[in-house]
Design a protein that fits this description.
Largest sheet: 5 strands, parallel
Oligomer: single chain
Mean pLDDT: 93
Number of domains: 2
Radius of gyration: 19 Å
Order of helices and strands: HEHEHEHEHEHEHEHEEEHEHEH
CATH class of the largest domain: Alpha Beta
CATH architecture of the largest domain: 3-Layer(aba) Sandwich
Shape: globular
Number of strands: 12
Distance between the termini: 46 Å
């Protein structure tokens, strides 16, 4: 890809003001609500799709169902949030009226939580014009932008398109075998960054999913999703936005050290190499690390099984696990 074509691409992270400008310009645009909630035992369950239908939502938005646009079944150990097949992704994109040239903007109702995963999915299938709305729906409302508050009984209709069959970009998804081999490479290993809360990384807090070991992949680093985000308040609404580039640099350097950040820059530069692997509980919040690294010109690959797979394999004695002292 030429430098001029890269410069012409929309930014991966956009503000409400930038999105409002795109909407008013009437350029080909598809806005997707990619809200997904991690429902924990003992807490009221929330449903992203139901809340989308209830409103409010961004005007003209459609719902991108992260829970259902996934690969399921024995082939993926019945794990959650696994990347869709190329045909499943293309079919879902077409049903949302998206073509390869459509500028897709994704947001969620928590600010920055599940929308990076939707953006990563599009990017991993080679969709170049993809953006995340920083702060999501709450930031859009806080900025005084128009909303659609009408309650719906069904998803809005849209003219379907033919989405050209994509290919999953090489190296963007890490397999268990690759991650296991990486644990044996010592100083030559790729860095592994884990987005789970630190108590879970350390093995001091129980996993929310059953039948899995506690702890982390050997030699990985704890980089909690929350450490990459700022909390904003507007009226009764509290939501998250991505930290500034300067603050992201400080946070990540504080975790991996000066040598580590230089290794990231060398091994995983924006020139195409993916020399860092990202993991979390189920592949969802690892995408926030991906988004943060992208702001620093660094590419990362996601271990799609994440701890849902590794922890289960470790429980069965198939994978090594570490705990912090």
């Amino acid at each position: 890809m030429s430098l001029s074509s890269v410069a012409s691409l929309p930014p991966l992270l956009i503000s409400p003001a930038q999105l409002a400008s795109l909407v008013s310009s009437k350029k080909a645009l598809r806005i997707l609500d990619a809200t997904w909630f991690l429902n924990m035992p003992g807490q009221p369950a929330r449903d992203g799709h139901k809340e989308f239908l209830q409103g409010p939502r961004l005007p003209g938005a459609l719902f991108w169902d992260i829970d259902n646009i996934v690969t399921r079944g024995e082939s993926v150990m019945n794990l959650p949030n696994m990347m869709p097949s190329t045909s499943m992704f293309a079919d879902a994109a077409g049903k949302h009226g998206i073509t390869r040239d459509t500028h897709v903007v994704v947001y969620d109702r928590q600010g920055i939580f599940s929308s990076p995963r939707a953006a990563f999915t599009f990017a991993a299938f080679g969709h170049k014009t993809i953006s995340v709305l920083d702060g999501g729906l709450p930031a859009w409302i806080a900025a005084g932008q128009d909303i659609d508050a009408q309650a719906l009984t069904a998803d809005p209709s849209v003219e379907e398109t033919k989405y050209e069959q994509p290919s999953l970009l090489n190296g963007w998804i890490r397999s268990f075998e690759e991650m296991l081999h990486n644990t044996t490479l010592g100083s030559r290993a790729q860095l592994v960054l884990d987005a789970r809360p630190k108590p879970r990384f350390e093995g001091k807090s129980p996993e929310p999913r059953p039948d899995m070991a506690a702890g982390h992949i050997p030699h990985s680093f704890s980089l909690p999703q929350s450490s990459l985000l700022d909390t904003q308040t507007s009226g009764d609404s509290t939501y998250t936005t991505l930290k500034s580039q300067q603050d992201l640099w400080k946070v990540i350097t504080g975790v991996v050290g000066e040598d580590g950040i230089e290794k990231l820059r060398h091994d995983a530069s924006s020139q195409g190499s993916l020399g860092v692997s990202l993991t979390c509980g189920s592949g969802m919040t690892a995408a926030t690390i991906w988004l943060a690294l992208q702001q620093l010109g660094i590419n990362g690959a996601i271990y799609d099984e994440s701890w849902s797979g590794w922890g289960r394999r470790a429980q069965n004695g198939e994978a090594p696990v570490e705990k912090s002292e």
